[in-house]
Amino acid sequence: MVKRPVEVCVEGLGHPEGPDVLPDGRVVFVNTYASEIAVYDPGKGKSQYAYTGGGPNAAMLGSDGYVYNTQCPTVGAWVAPDSRPPSIQRAAPDGKVEIVATEADGVPLTAPNDLSFGPDGRLYFTDSGDWDPVNKPHRGLICVIDTDGSCHVLEELEPTYPNGIVCEPDGSVVWVESYTLRVIRRRPDGTKEVLHTLAEGHIPDGFKLDTEGNFWITAFGAGGLDVLSPTGEHLDFLETGGVPLNCSFDGSSIYVCDFGTTDTSGGVAMNGRLIRVDDVGATGMQLFRGAIS
């Protein structure tokens, strides 16, 4: 287990998720309960990047300068007061927000969760369904949006709650399942393999790759990040404290969105944080960028 000093960048957030580092060093992330994409400037603090309405759940910069986000109007017991349809949205630098997709192959989206551009420029995302680990009411979907804007179902899953997703340089797509604790790789030819099943209590949420191809997976409720090799071997655990949800590298440092509490029954806790951990012993892989016309 590795423990590093943790710098608290922003406090008082409501379900922060999906951070991404902009070219100028600022960090965009969603602040779900505030229905916004927020931005953290190391010199100035936190401000609003765009008001999305609903419940944005992850954010990622595209090559066109837009910040793309998943939109899920309900998160656990929380329901957005200013609802938007389950969808993929994008926000221009001036804050204007538009909807990119609300369905995949004619199937309405239920609860888009995380997203990642692939080396082919397409946008891959998970559609988790509602968080209900007891009744598991919705099947999971892995979807992809082509550069022309058409959206397709790549994989239809059992009710496993597919959550974080990343794309590898060879075109493989890897996602984690919060109900099963599994890490799954889908290769470009469509074959799938279970790389790893995390330890009990290490509920996987979001994750990113380092330059060695290792997976840095936020473990909801376990207070840190599990580090796996490209073949699924458990290498290490980075202790951060709190309730980590998603992360993004900034060189050899890593930003982590922290929920702040494991009690989600009320759904409105505003004690989330954006934290930074320096010198984690790895360098983040450069993220792929793409754009939807």
Question: What does this protein look like?
Answer:
- The protein has strands at 2-3, 6-13, 16-21, 27-31, 36-41, 45-51, 56-61, 67-71, 74-75, 78-79, 87-91, 97-101, 103-104, 107-108, 112-117, 123-127, 141-145, 151-156, 162-167, 173-177, 182-186, 192-197, 203-209, 215-220, 224-228, 234-239, 244-250, 253-258, 272-277.
- It has 293 residues and is mainly β.
- The protein has one domain: TolB, C-terminal domain (Neuraminidase).
- The chain has a five-stranded mixed beta sheet with strand order 1-26-25-24-23, with no helix packed on it.
- Strand 17 and strand 18 (151-156) form a beta hairpin.
- The relative contact order is 0.17.
- What is the residue-mean pLDDT, rounded to a whole number? 94
Number of domains: 1
Q: Give start-end ranges of low-pLDDT stretches.
A: none
What's the total count of β strands? 29
The fraction of residues in strands falls at: over 45%
| The CATH architecture | 6 Propeller
Radius of gyration: 17 Å
CATH topology: Neuraminidase
CATH superfamily: TolB, C-terminal domain
Number of helices: 0
Gross morphology: globular
Helix share, percent: under 10%
Tell me the major beta sheet.
5 strands, mixed
Strand order of the largest sheet: 1-26-25-24-23
| Element string (H = helix, E = strand) | EEEEEEEEEEEEEEEEEEEEEEEEEEEEE
Summing up helix and strand content along with how strands pair, one would put the structural category as mainly beta
CATH class: Mainly Beta
